[in-house]
Structure formats: C-alpha cells, structure tokens
Specification:
Number of domains: 1
CATH topology: Hypothetical protein af1432
Shape: globular
Structural class: mainly alpha
CATH class: Mainly Alpha
Radius of gyration: 20 Å
Number of helices: 19
Helix content: 55-70%
CATH architecture: Orthogonal Bundle
Order of helices and strands: HHHHHHHHHHHHHHHHHHH
Largest sheet: none
C-alpha cells in the first residue's frame, strides 16, 4: 500500500537545501529554497492567526498546509526561474507547465500516494484564490521581502535592483486586505517575531561538523513539519491534530534562536546541561518570544512550543526529528563529506530509530534512503 510518508517525497523537499536563491546577486549569507519555504510557513501561521483573531475568519489549516506543500513542489520543479518568468509561464503556458510539473513529480516520486498526487494535480489546475491560498502567496512575498532586505545593501549599484524592490512592494500591496500583511510589512509588532524566526536561517545544523548541504535550523524545522503532516495523512488524523502536530514540529527548535544549536554530545556529556538549557529556554520564551505576539495567541503558541517531545502523543514528531537529522548525515556522506563525529552521530541516530516503538515505517524509509542514488 502506497503511503503519503514516502521517502522519495521527503527527499524531494530536502533536496531544496541545494537550491540557491538570489544566486545572481551578491549575498551576505547563503539563501536556500528550503529555508525560504520554512520562513514562509512561519509567516503564514502569523497571517492566518491575524485573520482568526481580528476578522473572526475560519482558517482551513489542513488546506493551508497542504497547498503550501504543493506550491513548494511547484517551485522545486521549476527550479531557479526568475519570478517574472515563472508567473508569465504559468499564465501563458499553464497547461504545458502543469504537465511538466506533474511529469517531474512522477519521476521524482514514482510511488506517491494516489490521493496526494491527485490533489497536487488539481491544485495546479485550479484558481488559487481561496483565503488560505492568498495567505500562502502573501507569506511567500513577505519572505521574499525579508530576504531582499539582506541582499539590497550589497547590490545597490546593480542594474535593476530598484525595479526589483518596487516589484516586491507592489506584489505585497496586492494582499493588503489580509490583516497581518500591513503589520508585518511595515515592521510592526509581529515583524519582530518573524525576523527573530528568520535568524534561524543563519544557524547551521550539526555545529562544528563539516556537511553538504549545510542545512539550517529553520530548514530542519520545516522538514520535520512536512514529515509529520504526511504521517498524519497516513493515520487519518483529524484537522485539529494535523494543525497541532504540524506547527508543533515547525516551531520545535525555535528556542534555539535564543540558545543556539547545542549538539547532543555536548548536552549529554555535561551533567545537568540539558535540564539547565530547558529551564533557560522556558524563561526566554516567556520574556522574549511571547511579548512579540498578541496576548490572545499566547495560550495557543505555548501549547505548540512547550515540551514538544515530552509526551506519548507527540512521539511521532520526535521520530521525524531524529530521521531528519539522520538524513542530513546520510546525504552528506553520499556527497563524500564526512567525519568521525558525523559518522558516529549517524550510527547513533540509526540505532535509536530502528529500536523506536513507532507506527512510522522507519525500517522502510531507511532502506529506501540507502537505495537512492544521491
């Protein structure tokens, strides 16, 4: 039986860590498509929460999550096309482009869950004008705007830079009817939260360990979120569980923006450090993160971020977290970049995963990952 949680689909998302953004500009740091999509989903959560709290709008969170994944797959298929060309192609050659995207998807994910594939094909053909789709698009442009601010100062003498700036601003203004867009774009309250989350694009995973690709904390968070969503599809989870699991996973490492990524061997080798970090994280969440969000969101946010792996209900999220880390190590070794720390870490993760009591087919995922030509 084909499952939504398919190794080829998981790797398809992960491979976006190799897709460079703004690669025709001078960049102060590496910007990847995986990180952009992760940041987009953080922003989408903020925009959707504003719609709920300020307009009393009902958000179809499952649709928002899945359609964001479909837009991600669409972007993966069309790789590094400039936005102007991308939108023109979709508008003028929509059927041909959609056929190419589905063909590319079928080649990348030959054993995809039929339901997931069908919904993806339907997404490509439909008018993306729903509330959820507009939130996704607005989040996309706001994430682009955040990146552009990093790039702009280093490229002010480059031909066309002011035109690019104006085009981004124009695109964002098309979504000014969405409550949170003005708040975020003009640097009001919620912008600081989004900006702080964006800093996780600068924090590399596996600190001190050479790897390719050098995935970031934020990109890792999206990988875990996408995996738990696919798992929840397989078990037939209800919409409330899908929301809770996905955004718990998306925010599970957010406290690391306050502590940095302390690798597991360091945590375990220094007695009491793990507990001390956990206590410090809770303090900083209360003092630093919560004040950046409207008070009426606090209970929901705390429920998502507080102790994400600490109970049996959230155990699958931990398995996805460990598997994402295992994949990071495995792929680097496939590229020929390894070290004793990386190989030891990979072996430790493999043992943990294969001995875990879980309904996720870890053995099948690892077997397929081992078979893939990377």
């Amino acid at each position: 039986m084909r499952k939504a949680m398919d190794m080829d689909l998981i790797y398809c998302f992960f491979d976006a860590a190799n897709m460079r953004r703004w690669n025709d500009h001078l960049r102060p740091t590496e910007l990847t498509e995986l990180d952009k999509q992760a940041h987009k989903m953080v922003i989408a959560w903020v925009l959707a929460k504003f719609e709920e709290s300020e307009k009393n709008e009902r958000i179809d969170w499952k649709s928002l999550i899945e359609n964001a994944m479909f837009s991600f797959l669409q972007r993966i298929a069309l790789t590094d096309l400039k936005p102007q060309l991308f939108h023109r192609m979709v508008k003028e050659k929509g059927n041909e482009v959609n056929e190419f995207i589905i063909k590319d998807f079928d080649e990348r994910v030959p054993n995809a869950d039929p339901g997931f594939r069908q919904r993806f094909a339907e997404y490509l053909k439909k008018e993306t004008t729903s509330k959820e789709d507009r939130i996704i698009k607005a989040a996309h442009y706001l994430a682009t705007s955040w990146e552009f601010k990093l790039v702009y100062n280093a490229n002010q003498t480059m031909y066309g830079i002011e035109k690019t700036k104006g085009e981004i601003e124009r695109q964002i203004k098309e979504y000014s009817d969405i409550s949170g867009v003005v708040n975020v774009f003009f640097g009001k309250d919620a912008f600081d939260f989004i900006d702080l989350c964006g800093q996780l694009r600068f924090q590399k995973r596996w600190a001190r360990v050479p790897r390719i690709p050098q995935t970031t904390v934020l990109g890792h968070m999206l990988m875990v979120a996408n995996m738990i969503y696919l798992h929840d599809l397989d078990i037939g989870a209800d919409d409330n569980k899908i929301y809770k699991d996905y955004f718990t996973a998306l925010f599970h490492d957010l406290p690391e923006v306050l502590t940095k990524d302390v690798i597991s061997p360091v945590k375990t080798s220094i007695g009491g450090l793990d507990e001390l970090l956990s206590e410090y994280e809770k303090e900083k969440i209360s003092d630093t993160l919560l004040p950046l969000l409207p008070k009426e969101w606090h209970n929901d946010f705390i429920a998502l971020i507080d102790n994400p792996f600490g109970n049996a209900e959230n155990k699958p999220i931990k398995i996805c977290d460990l598997f994402a880390a295992y994949m990071e190590a495995h792929v680097s070794e496939c590229y020929g970049i390894s070290s004793r720390a990386l190989s030891d870490g990979k072996e430790m993760l493999r043992k943990k995963l294969l001995s875990a009591d879980t309904n996720i087919d870890i053995e099948g995922l690892i077997k397929r990952l081992d078979e893939m030509k990377i």
